[in-house]
Every structure is written in structure tokens, then in C-alpha cells.
């Protein structure tokens, strides 16, 4: 039903000059760039499944521009260099019209700067949350369907203070995501009267973080802003082994089943976490009822990936061509008022309205998607907790 080309290994290569997308006689192709290998490899497949579901729904409801919607994927490995090579392939070889992705912020920036900007390619990331994306020089080509960590840091700070945690120690992975999140959290937490006992960066890929943990023991409340598959797991495991901490906190990158590999779940029972959530309402209810092989509606960033792919499909149909020119403006048109509401899965309805010249406004699985000047969206952040060895969503953080 759709094409899924998964590159499990990429290498840095000399990038060719990006060429315009080749217009297809019918149908359209979009790309997906994400970390199928590397520190978020357990988080990526459910995110990809969210985009795949859109492709299935579009093709089951009559297709796009008179043909099928296709999806090609490439592994960005949560790494800027690997992502640049992945973008070169999907943009210059596969000639995609637009890209869902990437996922890690540095990965998105590397992919876009590598071939996206010169190729005039619209990127919609479902997961790149670092504040650095807001100020990227992108000619209005880079958007995201998840809120910035400027918001997540503020909400985490409010949550921890509301729980009576008056001091915390922070360790963050030394990249755009980790530093941006840590800066936002620290500023909001101190503004609320809390004390940052330590705020220490760590490098990805080490086997031993005991030295870093030794610099964090001024507080028994440990915040880890990292990735579940990588340093997040190692730091949490070694922190538990040290016995120096009583409360554990993680950001969205830590919310994955692999986080607890090799860790006694009872030792982190009640661990606090945050991630982007969705409001209640008809659109969310419709989305949560969807089923498909490999698809989990409430997986971390799956709703945002669904919205990114659906929005790009709507924008391509609105633009009336697979050419890249004009797609950014079309994306803004279909994602905001005024217009008749389109909800998840309502592809056939949307096509009919577009053909009739009627304005539409997509209300998504992750909420409203009214992009601001920087391509950012408002959003909500939810609290999760580890209960019985898995993460359980506890509700909206006010």
C-alpha cells in the first residue's frame, strides 16, 4: 500500500547540490527521517507508525493528486552528520516533496541544513523540541507539531515545585535537546523559588557516569534529561546502584520501555516524567480509536507524527502539485482558521472541500496546530509516573 524504504546505516558523504522535486504525473512522495538506530531507536518505530497510518488512510480514501501517497524513510541516527546524508538521499535521489522529521533536534537541523534549505523542502518535525529550532534560519520551511522545551521546562519546574521538591540536581545530554531543556527547567525552577544544587552536562555513549553522578549528590532529587536507549538508561541504573538519590525525574526522551532495562523497577517506582500530550476532545478521541499493525496511539510522539504527515498530505493536495514551491504557504493555510474543521482520518472530506475551494482547518491528534511565525505550536505537557515497571500517564500539568 505504501513504500517504506528503511536505511539502517548511513555514512557521511559528499552532498550533492539539491535539485527541485520532480513533479509526479499523479500521487506524491514524502520522506521520513528519524533515529532508527542510535540513542532513540526504541522510540522511533512507534513514531514512524504514526506517519505510516496516514499513508494508509489517504490511499484507502482515494489517494492524493490522482494517485497514491508514498512514504520513504531514512535513518538519521539522532546525529547531524548521519541526518545530512539521509536527507541528501530522500531529497535528491527519492525526490520527496516534503519531509516528516527529523526527530532529535540536532538531527533535524543537520538534515535541513544539509539539503533541505537548498532544496526548498518543507520539514515538519514531530519530536524536535529544543528551543534552538525556533531561531533556525529556515526561510519558513521548518515546522514542528510538538511544543518547544521552553514550555516543557517550565511545566516540569511547576510540577516539581508543586510536589514539594525544593532542590534538584540536573544532568543533561550535551546537545541542543539536553542543554535547551536544562536551561529552561533551571530558569523556571529558580524563578519559582527552587534551588538547583547542580547542573551538569554529560556526553553520550559512555559506559560509566559515576564521576558525573558524584557531582550531583548535593540533592537527592535527580533530574535526567537524556535518551532512554542510551545515557539515560546508564545514568539511571548507576544512580540507583549508588543509593545516593531518592527521587528520579526524566524528560520526554526518557519515556520508553527500554529505560528500565537492567534496573530493578521497584527502585524507581514513582519516577516522575513529562512529555507532550493532547487535550481532550473529538479529534483526540477519533485518533485514539485508530488501530493498525505496529501502531500505538499514545506512544511518545506518535500523535505528533500522525499530525505532521496528515498536514503535509493536506498541504500537497491544497498546493495542487508535487512541486515544492508554495508548500509552506499551503501548510499554513490548512492548519489554521478560518476554515471548516478537518479531524484525523477525514481525508476524503478534506479532498472534497479543497477541490471546492473551501478553506479547511486541521485539528489534530495532538491538538490545534496554529503555527506561529517560527513554525512552532502551543501545546500541553503531561505528567507520567513509573508504576509497576512501566510509564503511566497521570494527567495535564497546569
UniProtKB/TrEMBL annotation:
Signal peptide from the UniProt entry: 1-23
Keywords: Amino-acid transport, Signal, Transport
Leucine-binding protein domain boundaries: 29-335
Record-level GO BP terms: amino acid transport
A Pfam family this chain is assigned to: Peripla_BP_6
Homology family: Belongs to the leucine-binding protein family.
Protein name as catalogued: Branched-chain amino acid transport system substrate-binding protein
Amino acid at each position: 500500500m505504501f513504500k517504506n524504504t528503511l536505511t539502517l546505516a548511513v555514512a557521511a558523504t559528499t552532498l550533492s547540490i539539491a535539485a527541485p522535486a520532480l513533479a509526479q504525473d499523479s500521487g506524491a512522495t514524502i520522506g521520513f527521517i528519524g533515529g532508527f538506530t542510535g540513542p532513540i531507536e526504541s522510540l522511533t518505530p512507534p513514531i514512524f507508525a504514526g506517519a505510516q497510518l496516514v499513508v494508509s488512510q489517504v490511499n484507502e480514501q482515494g489517494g492524493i493528486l490522482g494517485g497514491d501517497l508514498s512514504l520513504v524513510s531514512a535513518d538519521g541516527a539522532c546525529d547531524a552528520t548521519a541526518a545530512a546524508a539521509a536527507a541528501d538521499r530522500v531529497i535528491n535521489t527519492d525526490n520527496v516533496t516534503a519531509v516528516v522529521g527529523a526527530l532529535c533536534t540536532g538531527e533535524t537541523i543537520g538534515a535541513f541544513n544539509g539539503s533541505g534549505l537548498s532544496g526548498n523542502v518543507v520539514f515538519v518535525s514531530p519530536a524536535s523540541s529544543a528551543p534552538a529550532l525556533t531561531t533556525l534560519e529556515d526561510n519558513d520551511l521548518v515546522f514542528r507539531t510538538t511544543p518547544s522545551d521552553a514550555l516543557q521546562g517550565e511545566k516540569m519546574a511547576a510540577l516539581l515545585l508543586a510536589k514539594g521538591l525544593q532542590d534538584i540536581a540536573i544532568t543533561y545530554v550535551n546537545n541542543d535537546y539536553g542543554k535547551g531543556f536544562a536551561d529552561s527547567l533551571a530558569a523556571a525552577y529558580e524563578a519559582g523559588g527552587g534551588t538547583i544544587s547542580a547542573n551538569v552536562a554529560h556526553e553520550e555513549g559512555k559506559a560509566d557516569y559515576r564521576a558525573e553522578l558524584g557531582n550531583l549528590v548535593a540533592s537527592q532529587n535527580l533530574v535526567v534529561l537524556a535518551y532512554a536507549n542510551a545515557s539515560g538508561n546508564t545514568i539511571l541504573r548507576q544512580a540507583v546502584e549508588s543509593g545516593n538519590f531518592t527521587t528520579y525525574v526524566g524528560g520526554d526522551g526518557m519515556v520508553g520501555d527500554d529505560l528500565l532495562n537492567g534496573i530493578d523497577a521497584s527502585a524507581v517506582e514513582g519516577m516522575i516524567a513529562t512529555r507532550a500530550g493532547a487535550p481532550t476532545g473529538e479529534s483526540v478521541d477519533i485518533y485514539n480509536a485508530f488501530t493498525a499493525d505496529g501502531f500505538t496511539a499514545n506512544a511518545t510522539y506518535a500523535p505528533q507524527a500522525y499530525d505532521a504527515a496528515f498536514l503535509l498530505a493536506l498541504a500537497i493536495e491544497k498546493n495542487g502539485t508535487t512541486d515544492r514551491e508554495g508548500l509552506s504557504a499551503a501548510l499554513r493555510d490548512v492548519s489554521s482558521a478560518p476554515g471548516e474543521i478537518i479531524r484525523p482520518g477525514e481525508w476524503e472530506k478534506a479532498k472534497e472541500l479543497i477541490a471546492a475551494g473551501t478553506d479547511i482547518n486541521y485539528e489534530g491528534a495532538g491538538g490545534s496546530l496554529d503555527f506561529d511565525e517560527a513554525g512552532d505550536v502551543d501545546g500541553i505537557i503531561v505528567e507520567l509516573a513509573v508504576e509497576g515497571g512501566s510509564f503511566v500517564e497521570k494527567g495535564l500539568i497546569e
